[in-house]
Design a protein that fits this description.
The structure holds two protein chains of two kinds. Chain A is an alpha/beta fold. Chain A contains 13 helices and twelve strands. In chain A, the strands form three sheets. A five-stranded mixed beta sheet of chain A has the order 2-1-3-12-4. A five-stranded mixed beta sheet of chain A has the order 7-6-8-5-9. Helix content of chain A is 44%, strand content 19%. By secondary structure, chain B is an all-alpha fold. Classes of the chains: A alpha/beta, B mainly alpha. Chain A binds chain B through residues 1, 3-4, 7-8, 15, 18-19, 22, 25-28, 42, 44, 46, 49, 52-53, 55-57, 59-60, 63, 70-76, 84, 87, 89, 202-204, 207, 221, 223-224, 226-228, 293, 296-298, and chain B through 61-64, 83-84, 86-87, 90, 138, 143-144, 193, 196-197, 200, 225, 227-232, 235-240, 250, 252-257, 287-288.
Chain lengths: 318, 292
């Protein structure tokens, strides 16, 4: 028992001290007066995991310029981020697809006004295994038949004459991701994706799946293709002008890689931008930096004019 | 040698020996299998992550550049969350166990509670995450704060602590109670002088083991929204936070191969913390159990 007491009371004491220490602190304060880098406060950002690497890079630079502003960048997926945005928990919500109508309705119900900003571009990349030497390009119609749950296409031979009579293995991002939503809407017109497809929220799983099977077909964000060019092979996709195009910095930015180029967004709560200097500074910084940061982490920057317009949009909120 | 003398049993003996041998080989293989998997994991993590493991890794924030990325915010977040989880789960857990073992009447109701406790211990952590999200984050408006995370973690490990504490209290010999009662001690005096000292090693071992589970826990905190980039240290229990396993998970999902190595380096740090915590549990057990 003698051995026991110091341990026991020591623990109790340290807990009490800890709780007391916690009790003295106050919740994070709101806004501070003035502009420039002495602004303090906090910014809550959440949403798309696709946009996260860009926002992380922006926030990393931001925290050096504005050391007193606490910016938190969460990753809940586009849909999950929207839920928090609607619940009023966040100032900025990242999205890898435009806001859905029902989400807009819920925001209106909640009385939250917002502004949409384009941040960068991503080229959804359709890839196959490097051993696959028969696929030279795919049309949108072929893509649709392959991915549709309700179609007769199971093997490569069903897609085009002369291709091997082997079953296609499909790999797709998970249903929580904006990437899935975008592909489903653009290619499948919102219809049910093939139920036999392997879905994963982790894009690296899709890369590994594609690299591991000769008959694999997958799609995911451009950054994952750019980092894995040795292990997967890109498939050119026929655009509306009838040209088969592969995604790269040029074709994504000039719009010739379509319709699988998609804009990435962030949604800003107007009230936060108007009243919270920290949020305003962060949004401004994001617009100014996102082009460079996007390129650095594997996405494609927008035309400079769009960033200029975005800055004007933001100023109008003040 | 017996087999020469009892000739009749020769066949049976051989068969038993065969069973024995088969069992031995099977169990040996089971052990080896587990060891090989563990060794592969360790070798992979260490070879992959060792290069990224240095002082800068421990003292810088996450970054878009793998070579600059660090786990400062994640370590701080883990420590703060544990600062909430440890006192809350210990006080509530031991309190519940004491009540159920020492005070509560053994009737259907307490039996029902005990049954539920054992069930709760097996509920997937994501469910606790959902509970934390609705109750702490939304209803009590704590936001995605350390407080909400710490309380959710407490709920997650509470059943395990209660069960471990109950077992530990129950193993105290009846004679010790009787001796104390004979001296005229009240219930509280017995708890203070007999039950707690005798049960402490068991309680602490159970508590530390379940806390190390909490340190490695990811799913329930993901629900709360602890997956985040944070470039500041928490300054209160209402700050946003991220924790080690989530930071590792975050890096593992990146397209750049170098981030996989950073994730491995993070895993090494997490492993070291877990081994340290488990060692403390073993030391406590060895040091204090000798007395009874």
């Amino acid at each position: 028992m003698k051995m026991n007491r110091p341990v026991k009371y020591g623990t109790v004491l340290s807990m009490t001290l800890l709780l007391a220490a916690c009790g003295n602190e106050t919740a994070d304060g709101g806004t501070a007066e003035g502009g420039s880098s002495d602004v303090s406060g906090s910014v809550q950002v959440d949403g798309s995991s696709t946009v996260f690497p860009i926002m992380e890079a922006v926030a990393e630079e931001f925290s050096m310029t504005y050391p007193d502003i606490q910016a938190t960048i969460g990753v809940s997926g586009t849909g999950g981020g929207m839920e928090k945005f609607i619940a009023g928990e966040t100032d900025i919500s990242n999205a890898s697809r435009p806001m859905k109508e029902e989400e807009a309705d819920l925001l209106e119900e909640a009385g939250i006004e917002y502004t949409e900003f384009q941040l960068a571009l991503d080229g959804l990349s359709v890839v196959v295994n490097p051993e696959n030497d028969w696929v030279d390009y795919l049309t949108l119609e072929e893509l649709k038949m392959i991915w549709l749950d309700d179609s007769d296409v199971d093997t490569w031979a069903d897609v085009r004459e002369g291709w091997p009579d082997e079953e296609i293995l499909l790999f797709s991002p998970g249903t929580d991701s904006g990437t899935y939503d975008y592909f489903d809407e653009i290619i499948l017109d919102g219809e049910q994706i093939d139920r036999e497809a392997t879905l994963s929220e982790d894009d690296n799983v899709l890369v590994q799946g594609t690299a591991g099977s000769r008959n694999a077909l997958a799609y995911f964000g451009y950054a994952y293709y750019a980092e894995n060019q040795d292990t997967v092979k890109i498939v050119p996709i026929e655009n509306s002008a009838g040209e088969a195009v592969t995604p790269d910095d040029v074709t994504v930015q000039d719009g010739s890689y379509e319709p699988l180029s998609r804009p990435l967004f962030f949604y800003l709560k107007n009230e936060s931008a108007a009243e919270n200097d920290a949020v305003y500074e962060f949004a401004k910084y994001t617009i100014e930096m996102s082009g460079d940061m996007a390129t650095e982490v594997g996405y494609v920057a927008l035309d400079d004019a769009i960033y200029e317009e975005n800055l004007e949009l933001l100023e109008a909120l003040r | 040698m017996n087999e020469k003398r009892i000739v009749i049993d020769d066949k049976k003996i051989n068969r038993r020996r065969m069973y024995n041998k088969t069992g031995q080989v099977l169990f040996f293989l089971s052990t080896v299998f587990g060891m090989i998997v563990l060794a592969t994991l360790l070798v992979r993590i260490f070879t992959q992550g060792f290069d990224y493991l240095n002082w800068d890794f421990l003292t810088s924030y996450a970054s878009r550049r793998p070579e600059d990325a660090g786990i400062k915010a994640a370590i701080a977040g883990t420590v703060w969350v544990m600062g909430i989880t440890i006192p809350v789960s210990l006080v509530l857990g031991v309190g519940t166990a004491l009540y159920l073992e020492e005070y509560a009447a053994k009737n259907k109701f307490t039996h029902f509670i005990e049954l539920n406790l054992s069930n709760l211990a097996g509920v997937p952590s994501i469910v606790f995450g959902l509970l934390g999200l609705t109750v702490f984050v939304r209803t009590f408006a704590m936001g995605r704060s350390i407080l909400a995370g710490g309380l959710t973690m407490s709920l997650l490990i509470l059943p395990i602590i209660v069960v471990a504490s109950k077992e530990s209290i129950r193993s105290i010999p009846q004679e010790q109670y009787e001796a104390a009662y004979a001296m005229g001690a009240t219930k509280w005096q017995i708890i203070k002088t007999v039950v707690l000292p005798a049960a402490t090693p068991g309680i602490l071992t159970g508590a530390i083991l379940s806390l190390s589970r909490a340190v490695g826990e990811t799913a329930s905190l993901l629900m709360i929204g602890a997956m985040a980039f944070i470039a500041y240290l928490p300054d209160s229990i209402f700050s946003s936070f991220t924790v080690l396993p989530i930071q590792i998970f975050n890096w593992a999902g990146r397209p750049q191969a170098a981030f996989q190595s950073v994730a491995a380096a993070g895993s090494i740090v997490l492993l070291v913390i877990l081994i340290a915590m488990n060692s403390v549990a073993i030391i406590i057990r060895n040091k204090y159990t000798k007395r009874y």
